[in-house]
Amino acid sequence: MAHSARRDSPELPDFSILKRLARDQLIYLLEQLPGKKDLFIEADLMSPLDRIANVSTLKQHEVDKLYKVEHKPVISTSDQLCFLIRPRIQTVKWICDVVNTDKVPGKSRRYKIIFTPQKFYACEAVLEEQGIFGDVSIDEWPFYLLPLDDDIISMELPEFFQDNFLAGDQRWVRTAGSALHLLYSLYGPFSKVYGIGRCSKMAYESWREQVEEGEQKARQAEIGNVFLIDRDVDFVTPLCSQVVYEGLVDDIFRIKCGCVEFGPDVTASDKSVKVMLNSHDKVFSEIRNEHFSNVFGFLSQKARNLQTAYDKRRGMDIKQMKTFVSEELKGLKQEHRLLSLHIGASESIMKKKTKQDFQELLKTEHLLLEGFEIRECISYIEEHINRQVSMIESLRLLCLLSITENGLLPKDYRSLKAQYLQSYGVDHLLTFSNLRQLGLLVEQQPGETLTVMESKVGKLVNDKTAGKLTDAFSSLAKKSNFRALSRKLNLVPKTDEEYDLRVPRDMAYIFSGAYIPLSCKLIEQVLERDGWTGLEEVTRLLNGHEFAVTGSSGVDSRGKNDTQRIILVMFLGGCTYSEISALRFLGREKGYKFIVVTTAITNSSRLLEALLDNHV
Amino acid sequence: MAFITASWNPLGDAFYRKTDLYEMSWSLRDGLRDSLVAAAPYGGPIALLREPQRRSPSSRPQLEIYSASGGTIASFPWKSGPVVQLGWTVSDELLCIQEDGTVLIYDLFGSFKRHFSMGQEVVQSQVMEAKVFHSPYGTGIAIVTSSSRFTLATNIDDLKLRRLPEVPGLQGKPSCWVVLTQDRQTKVLLSNGPELFILDNTSCTVVCPPGLSPQDGNIVHMSVSFSYKYLALLTDSGHLWTGLSTLQEKLSDVDTKKTMAPKQMLWCRRPKSQQPSVVLMWDRLLLVVGVCNETIQYPIEDPCVLVGEMDGVRIISSSNQELLQEVPLVCQDIFKIASMAPGALLLEAHREYEKSSQKADEYLREIKEQSMLGEAVRQCVEAAGHEYDTNTQKSLMRAASFGKCFLTDFSPDQFVTTCRELRVLNAVRDSSVGLPLTHTQFKQLTLQVLIDRLVYRQFYPLAIEVCRYLKIPDYQGVSRVLKHWASCKVQQKDLTDDAIARAVCMKVGDSPGVSYSDIAAKAYECGRAELAIKLLDFEARSGEQVPLLLKMKRSQLALSKAVESGDTDLVYTVVSYLKNEMNRGDFFMTLRNQPVALSLYRQFCKLQEQETLKDLYNQDDDHQELANYYVTASYREKRLEGRLSLLQSAVDEYNKAKNEFAVKTTEDEMRLLRFQRKLDDEKGAGLLGLSLQVTMETLLSLGLHKQAEQLYKDFRVPDKRYWWLKLKSLAEKEEWDELEKFSKSKKSPIGYLAFVEVCIKCNNKYEAKKYVSKVTPEQKVKAHLAVGDLEGAADAAIERRNEAEIGAVLSRCSASNSLVIERLNRARAAIAKK
Q1: Which parts of the sequence belong to the Vps16 N-terminal domain (chain B) (predicted)?
Q2: Strand partners of residue B691
Q3: Residue A174: which of B567, B607, B715 has the nearest Cβ?
């Protein structure tokens, strides 16, 4: 792609230290329980663990058998059981059952629970309540961060989103603060920290507290600025269909921990193949950030190049042939394999996504973002629900409609809800209750002049009271104010000119030129202005909680220009691959390098599935 | 200067000297006569109890505490029982051992701290003698009772009394005894006449020191060295036996020719001692007996007290205080008359240099020729450390600095450190502070402990100066001092809470490592709860405030502070504490005011205590959540009746919450469930629990059109939805006639394009074509294209003169449709013209 990329992009810090650190800590903990032991691993820790320490490493440290935690009675015969789990009450309760079952016939074993990334008091309380606190030894494995790629680090905590934003349970905030502190102690000090959102602010404060408690070492900074952002600042972006290759792959095949499993329809054989998707995959790294419409062109070009490379061997003498085989062939073969996989994936995507339906779906989304022809959009959604196209998709469109329109008209709200319940079952009544609580799907309040009144009041009284009032108002109704934000920040580019997706003009290319993701736009603006000045109106619309703090250590921020342009963006509540692509684009344009830290990679389905009422 | 050696006395091949430490600033009326005196080593404080045995209640003895220089620290009348022994602990606490075995502990300022007893049997038999001793385990006490039994406590802070076995043949108290610490065991060595016994936990063994025969007489005095390594025994015939305390080896055997028992006998040695000695004191004489058989005699005028130190003996009299010690080797080397040691030469060189004499060069040359300059500098620096007189220190340091100038690559560390340490030592030796520490003692004591001692004595400014001067990190230095200061400050009863809080805040500010909650805890201990709360407000980390607040029963405040801290574990700790402390109603009310805590607790209840959750919602009159709770519960309920009754409860709650929509939906759900149940019973359709849509779908696929129709009507299913449903269902079952009939039943609310598309999806082009004509004009092109009828599509598009549609048709044309293409292009051109 003919990017007008700036060539002077700074180098990213080496994040593999994080992996080594986590591995060493785990090994240390395993050695605390000498002798052969069986290891039970929480299901969603399997993949992250695999990136840190493989089976043979575990075996080296006397792990005998590996089991997945399945909340069933254990069949292990080992006299030492080690549980590697997330601090979840359900799992702890299951362990209590295991221990108590052993107690009945008087079987004696040693039990060790390793909580990662930390333990919670509530878990210990359960152990105590069940009377096995003395029978188990407890440890913490501070495995906060898993580098998924050179520039993506995940905390692998999808529950952060529900717990924090839906249940209002702030227990993970400190974890986020600790994760930031870990990065700080390895790659800091940071010269400036920006952020927006309540949770971001709390995480920031928690981190500061840890900085003050610990000892400070002067070291060479490897990260310049930090930007913290709450997921609930921008719900629109993750709710849109992704059309950039990596995002599409995630939407369709679900990337898990940086790894995707391509089914038989992609591999053109009867086997499934697991592929790591990161910058080491040469083919993937070139197409991951591309709009899907360009991907085929790229792949065919690539195929031609490959062919020429293969063709070189014609007319070679023996010696040349020898070097070719020993040096190039393996690389070419590898590339060949990857290329065919990605072509397969693209074909499979094409089959699913280039149909009329998908085009119309995208069109509706774009109309919603632009705010045109809302009536037609509503009837499209209605039809979508009536035909039971997809439970999650319907919900996604409903939410998108509600956010962009600042809530649904009471009439529409009721009828759409009723139809949805009829289609997908009345249990979704609770799902709707969740969505309303988060402000994702709400009814328009009769007094819609709230914003106007608020600003009037705000002008009359001094700032502090106005802040309090704003808080009071915002608690009355969580509003998205998307339309106003979109105007203020120019999120929807003018539609009159043709958008050439091969030569992206701005970050909107990740949504076919229809919409610049709000989250990324905020980051761009704040970095450009070096703070929130001039964005007062915007932050007010976003319910505030913004901050910008210059590093206390007084780093000589000038001079080390390269580090200054390395920006760490931390998404609290998850981020999508599209957002990462947008940030990469922004980085290329402005000479930044972005490092994305997220509590988990999310997309519209994961986001909404978290809010379905799961019959607990 | 010239007379440094004047106070030196040779002993064997070494020298002993007496250094003046202080003119005592106390004024004792009766001197040290008839007093019980305890002076702590390492320049510790001195406690004095006058006439301890006087028992008349009218005149109580006075207990006085002085600094080592004689400055009064505290003085108070002794009101408790008769005291047998005084002693100091390692942390500068005063131990008063009473006759009845009670040990009272006072701090440096004479305020009572606590007491303990040395055992029940002691109360009757009375303590005859007691000794306070120090070991790596802390400060210990040993007593012997009038029934001749010994009791030991190795560490008074972790009191474990050990009653030692009986000593055969011992009546009354032994003639003398000492406590030994050997091989991590504490033992008592005692003599009864000529016999020597070792008492340990389990046994009493007779021992015989090598080279000491019973003919030498009864042992009347014994002394063990500071390090517990050496032992000295004195017999009534004046024989002084010295040897290892293990009694394995004899060092020497000296006949002192003194048959009277001395008042005190102590070892006087130093690390790397060349010529250790034993100091014996009688009323008028101080005798230093070297292992080499030589002696030094000093006359004494006043009654004195000897204090053993690790590198000498302090001699305290009522008027002054001296340090008796073996002259360190390096000082001997430098100051010995006619010494040719490099250090001595360097000192001389510097002296000449100051006189501007060229001899300086000669001396220097001499040292340099032996390439001993480095050694010379080192000697001077080391010697300076050992000297007490500041002028001597200075001249030695100057000489060292002078010598240093002629050296390259000489590490200045030792010089700088010694300079700094000497400055600190000189400051604490000042009589107003009164800590006569030698450099060797200081090294042993460590700086940390020195600062602690300054703090115990409340020399806060000096302590802070020292910390700053020596650049000790705040955590270990200034902050620690401030913490002590503040803890002391909060105990001042004469100041108001406000004044104290302000003073503390001003001084402590936000020094790192000072925890306001610790200070507040102290204030609370002193019974000043209000002050504690005021101080807690300064604590930046709310988490730190919580435990104390809980202790103070300020649970509400604790909860809000916990919430502020953002540490959910802390919040949860408080919540579970409150749960146990309060009654349920109050507990819920408290939570209600703290949304963060409430949601945390809710999360927990959701997983652990469903019933509590219900109570919580009930308390809050949160009908919406309560209803949601019932709905959730209904899913877990397997029986239909149970489910319906739960749903009914939900309906009631939704009603209360005025959520009409939810009421209606839930009622619908109940209706649907009943309907499904009925059909399941009648037809075995397996519908229970399905959504309305799926129910209708299933009914249609089972051919139960009537029942589907009934649902459609009963539940007011939108027409569109029903049409879609029926359309799909019929097409899937390929009931094309039915479908056609259905399409004609009334005007389709979903249009007819849907019919076309569904038919195509089911691969029936023929049927699809039937509906193309019915499609609205706007969708005609699409419909034609869907059935693959390019001609028709072209016709429709041209008719509608719609450029986009023409384009759409064109894009579907292949080369074989040249006719159509031509027509379309023409039409497009025509439109463009207009």
Answers
A1: 5-416
A2: none
A3: B567
Best of B720, B755, B782 to disrupt the A interface by mutation (most A CBs within 10 Å)? B720
Provide the token pair at B192: 């009864």
Per-residue pLDDT reduced to its tens digit, B510-567: 777 777 777 888 788 777 777 887 777 777 666 777 777 777 777 778 888 788 777 7
More confident residue, A458 or B656: B656
| Pairwise CA distance, residues A388 & A395, whole Å | 11
Do B728 and A387 make contact, defined as CB atoms within 8 angstroms? Answer: yes
Residue A216 has a pLDDT of 67
Chain-chain contact of B566 with A174 (C-beta, under 8 angstroms)? yes
Those residues with Cβ within 8 angstroms of residue A326's Cβ, 6 or more apart along the chain or in another chain: none
- Which percentage of chain B shows pLDDT scores above 90? 16
- Judged by CB atoms closer than 8 Å, whether chains meet at B691 and A167 is answered as no
Spatial strand order of the sheet with B14-23 comes to: B8-11, B14-23, B320-326, B312-317, B304-309
Tell which B residues from 504 to 533 touch A, by Cβ distance under 8 Å: 512
Q: pLDDT band for position A459 (50/70/90)?
A: very low
Q: Cβ(A37)–Cβ(A63) under 8 Å?
A: yes
| pLDDT in the model for residue B504 | 79
Question: Which of B569, B672, B691 comes nearest A423 by C-beta?
Answer: B691
Asked whether residue B443 is domain-assigned, the answer is yes
Nearest-angstrom CA–CA distance, B513 and B483? 9
Residue ranges making up the domain that contains B418 = 338-562
Q: Using CA atoms, how far apart are residues B733 and B615, in angstroms rounded to an integer?
A: 52
B476 touches A at CB < 8 Å: no
Predicted pLDDT at A468: 44
CA-to-CA distance for B249 and B268, rounded, in angstroms?
A: 19
Structure tokens at B413: 């560390």
**Terminal CA-to-CA distance of chain A, rounded, Å?**
49
Please check whether the domain covering A15-143 is classified as CATH 3.40.50.2060. yes
pLDDT of B305 > 50? The answer is: yes
- At A555 the pLDDT is 47
b/e burial code for range B63-99 (CB count within 10 A of at least 16 → b): bbbbbbbbbebbeeebeeebbbbbbbbbebbbbbbbb
pLDDT at residue B274, rounded to an integer: 84
Q: Please, what is the end-to-end C-alpha distance for chain B in angstroms?
A: 124
CATH number for the domain formed by residue range(s) A147-234+518-610: 3.40.50.1910
Alpha carbon of A31 to those of A27, A113, A132, A134, B734: distances in Å?
Answer: 6, 13, 23, 20, 67
Find the residue in B nearest to A212 (Cα). Answer: B512
How far is residue B312's CA from residue B42's CA, in Å, rounded to a whole number? 11
Interface test with B, best of A426, A430, A438 (most B CBs within 10 A): A426
Query: Of B569, B635, B666, which has the smallest distance from its Cβ to A120's Cβ?
Result: B569
For residue A469, pLDDT over 50 is answered with no
3.90.830.10, 3.10.20.30, 3.90.1150.10, 3.30.1380.10: which CATH number matches A245-349? 3.90.830.10
Query: Position of tokens 């001003």?
Result: B506
Yes or no, beta carbons of B631 and A90 under 8 Å apart? no
**pLDDT confidence of residue B88:** 92
> How many angstroms separate the CA atoms of A222 and A471, rounded?
37
Coil, strand or helix at B97? strand
More confident site: A315 or A298: A298
User: Max alpha carbon distance in chain B (Å)?
Assistant: 147
- This prediction's pTM: 0.68
Residues 666-725 of B with CB under 8 A from A: 666, 668-669, 672, 690-694, 715, 717-718, 720-721, 724-725
Beta bridge partners of A192: A225, A550
Say whether pLDDT at B162 is over 80: yes
- CB-CB neighbors (< 8 A) of A387 in chain B: 724, 728
